[in-house]
What does this fold into?
Amino acid sequence: MNLLAAWFFSSGAAAVSLEQAKAQCHDKFVPIVRGCVRQKVARDGGSPTQYIPGCRESIMSDARACVAKLMGAEGPAEIDVPPPSGKGRVVLLLSGIDGTSSYKDYAEKLAELGYYVVLIEGRQVLSQDKQGGERLAKAIAAAQGSPNALPGKIAVIGFSLGGGGALAYAERQPDTVATVIAYYPATSFIAKVSDMKTFVGNFQVPLLAFAGAKDSFDDCCRLATIQSMQATAKESGKSMDLVVYPNAEHNFIKGSTYRADDADDAWKRTTAALSQYLGDAPAH
It folds into this structure.
């Protein structure tokens, strides 16, 4: 049995869903915003409408923290890399099976562009215990609740096993995820749990995927499977771009199979996608 054969996805539900947490925190903070508006009107006069944006913004950090707390503690163990400015739009990285330490350099490189990067274990998302979707939702809520996070949807970038987790779960979260980027993602698990049409039918977020034509690592991430996914996405009207590097193997951005030209091209496409879906990163 190959290393990834046991990793599969299943739609787990959090004890408190994201929608329920948002609703509860909304009820908690609406009176606070109203009180803030009344105080400003009483003090400075004018229309209440002009004070609503400022009062709402003043509680957003606490509101996001409220959502994260209701959904459970912190989610998976993580490495946080704030941008030089201290605050940035959130990019959540899901590591490969080799763990978070192998992707810390990548996380730091992204953070230097102005993003708040949170790196978690991909194996905790594409997991055997059927809790991966819940963990991902908690990680997203916790990241959005951080004082280092700017408001807005996040980007999810997954590598290998983590890429499979991003396909299985992040693609189903359009309310919190703006784009998914998958580097040589694990796809062998799909046939064990679904057919490709059903699996792709759950995609709700624009997807950019990178694949090596010579990828034979553990039979996890075959080119034919990701190409079938792309064809199915096109037939289904889903947004998916696939970039294939003809001479690349698995893990072409690092280690013994590193290919500089392919890694550089994937990096440029990744940063362009982040700029498109998250907006330009703030100046350092």
Summary: The chain has two domains: 18-70, 78-278. The chain has a mean pLDDT of 87. The beta strands are 78-81, 90-94, 116-120, 154-159, 177-183, 207-212, 240-245. The CA atoms of residues 235 and 268 lie 28 Å apart.
